[in-house]
Design a protein that fits this description.
Helix content: 25-40%
Radius of gyration: 21 Å
Mean pLDDT: 75
Structural class: alpha+beta
Shape: globular
Distance between the termini: 33 Å
Order of helices and strands: HHHHHEHHHHHHEHEEEEEHHEH
Strand content: 15-25%
Length: 377
């Protein structure tokens, strides 16, 4: 995360700032959670007769991309019952987080280096797999007519309640437990530089029924997910030159990692930030690193966390929106303290509460991401 945050403190020049703002204005009205696409991908890739029938209707490249997208999920006990370790989290962040691709948003040597690094690794990132999926399906769906509507209007067949809610953007599916500011359509609120991570409800997979107009639904869900990923990357960029005032801009990294849960696919929303008041290596003035995350694992309800690290001292605050879940987490808090101490951390506090963290304070926008509210209003 430290390496990925280095470019976040470099302000964009005016031309690139304008390009990012134009991208934001397009993507903010389209963005949606990746869980919608994963529900469809789970149905298509299911080892069932229905899954095989759906795969037969799609281009081979699209099927391969869907398999790659499912394979990039962080395994949180779905397949082996074990929670991910530090190496697994790092790998997931490299594959699904902003990473080198965010640097590729900056024209110049940094972009070329980022693209070259991806090519040498040979491993497709989540954004690359989503782009491959959109490209593979672009020629397999009916083109829009002059009025912007599809030339075919075949009614959609029943998908089953979970996937149907996902495709429709139902508040009961995607917006359950979402942070304040989520849109009325049930889509999660767009990520901004100052915003807290928003939990996104699990959509079970696979679904057994075959949807009509399958290629278009997958194509649209992939474009929505790509739009949200670009907004997440933009939220980690600085578009004003704070160095003119002689003050370093605190680094911020936003990322959303798809997670394979026993009951379907969820999203681990992350925000890593460094307090700009301290400088590494200065005695008595150590920087404070803060990791925030939010996840909705299903029956337990949305869970939020704030972990603060200064040197070897660590503190944690946990929130569960379900009171019973909060009580269970409180009973296990001592285990978390022991686990941190075993890693040689000095634990200051571990607190558990029912509810959700206070929303981030509203501030004057300092980048394109900060203008989402105005664009939506």
């Amino acid at each position: 995360a430290t390496a990925q945050m280095q470019t976040a403190t470099k302000a964009l020049p005016p031309a690139q700032r304008a390009a990012v703002e134009a991208m934001v204005s397009r993507d903010v009205v389209r963005q949606d959670s990746l869980v919608r696409l994963n529900a469809l991908a789970g149905a298509v890739m299911a080892p069932t007769a229905a899954g095989a029938a759906m795969r037969a209707t799609l281009p081979k490249a699209a099927v391969e991309a869907l398999g790659a997208i499912l394979g990039l999920r962080l395994d949180a006990g779905k397949d082996n019952g074990k929670l991910p370790d530090a190496a697994g989290l790092k790998r997931a962040l490299q594959q699904a987080g902003p990473g080198a691709d965010r640097e590729a948003m900056r024209p110049g040597p940094g972009a070329q280096a980022a693209q070259g690094q991806t090519a040498r690794s040979g491993a497709a990132t989540l954004k690359e797999s989503l782009s491959q999926l959109v490209k593979a399906l672009s020629g397999a769906i009916p083109q829009d007519g002059p009025d912007g509507t599809a030339t075919t209007n075949e009614p959609q067949r029943a998908l089953g309640s979970a996937a149907q809610k996902a495709l429709a953007g139902s508040p009961s599916s995607l917006n359950q437990g979402a942070a304040p500011g989520a849109s009325e359509a049930g889509r999660p609120p767009p990520p901004t530089r100052a915003a807290l991570p928003a939990p996104q409800a699990v959509v079970p997979d696979p679904v057994d029924a075959e949807p009509a107009d399958l290629a278009r639904q997958i194509h649209d869900a992939a474009k929505d997910a790509l739009a949200r990923m670009r907004l997440t990357q933009a939220a980690s960029l600085v578009t004003v030159d704070a160095s003119r005032d002689g003050v370093d801009q605190p680094g911020v990294l936003h990322a959303e990692i798809p997670v394979a849960l026993p009951n379907g696919t969820g999203v681990l929303a992350l925000k890593v930030e460094r307090d700009g008041s301290g400088a590494a290596g200065e005695e008595g003035n150590k920087p404070v690193w803060r990791l925030r995350f939010a996840i909705d694992p299903g029956e337990l309800g949305p869970v939020h966390a704030l972990v603060s690290l200064s040197g070897e001292s660590v503190s944690a605050r946990l929130w569960a929106e379900d009171r019973e879940t909060a009580a269970l987490m409180g009973e296990e808090a001592s285990d978390l303290v022991r686990a941190l101490q075993e890693k040689a951390f000095e634990v200051e506090t571990v607190r558990v509460a029912a509810g959700r963290p206070d929303p981030a304070p509203r501030a004057a926008p300092d980048n394109a991401a900060g203008r989402y509210r105005d664009l939506l209003s």
